[in-house]
Amino acid sequence: MKVNGKELAVEITGEGPAVLFVHGLGGTSNFYQVQADALAGSRTVIRVDSAGAGRSEVSDEISIDSHADDLAAVLDAAGVAQAAVVGHSMGTLVVREFATRHPEKVTSLALLGAVREPAEAGRQAQRDRAATLRAEGTVAVAPGVVANALSETTHKDKPEVAAFVRELVMRQDPEGYARNCEALAAATDPGPIDPALPLLLITGDTDKVGPPEASHELADAHGSATVEILPGVGHWTALEAAGPVTDHLLKFL
Fold it and tell me: How many domains does the chain have?
């Protein structure tokens, strides 16, 4: 789909009220395959590979703001006025910005592994990762992502999830991945979530990237959010706990 002067990979399945899925850094729309399959029987499911990620082309300017505006353009191009929006990891910053910039398009918000605005050490880590990607490619960063972002339980009991995460990372375009790392390094907090907007937060109890405290902070500021902390789960929430995440989304929606 051509939006905002760039070609994005967009999948639309099912019929009914729309749900828009937004992946995180190093991910693609396939991160949500289980949830998309479950929802397509009663919902119009829209999945986007963000600019520079997955099957979408690398664009000159990639930022949290540009990703948010791309989502608005995707909905417009698809003829969808409003959608429930689900974001993961860096995608939680994107969808929060989307809800701030285009509130009329968002009916509810679900955040998986919600992350904070990066601290300076985190910003430098993302800039360093971008430099590594440009110099050595995805093979140099994939082992660290797999080792650090999945829970011990997942490594032990679900090695196929670790293999899939490695594949997601390895299949990224190095330059596109680098530019998205830099987008995260430059990210700022999108501001408060509208208390009138239904909000669901799901994260793992061992998530080091989007820790439970971050979700609780957002929930406390919102005032009426639902928070679900999943035991034995790390940062790749929808893969490590595919069944529970799907159940919570079905209930919430």
Answer: 1
Q: Which domain covers residue 27, as residue numbers?
A: 2-118+188-252
Q: What would the pLDDT profile of 63-93 be if each residue is shown by its tens digit? A: 999 999 999 999 999 999 999 999 999 999 9
pTM comes to 0.97
Q: What separation in angstroms does the CA of 72 have from each of 62, 129, 177, 198? A: 15, 29, 22, 19
Beta bridge partners of 247: none
Alpha carbon 19 to chain centroid distance? 14
Which among 220, 1, 194 is positioned nearest to 102, based on CA atoms?
Answer: 194
How far from chain centre, in Å, is Cα 44? 18
Q: What is the mean pLDDT of residues 21-37?
A: 98
**Number of Cβ atoms within 10 Å of the Cβ of 58:** 17
Residue 193 belongs to domain with CATH number:
3.40.50.1820
246 falls within a domain: yes
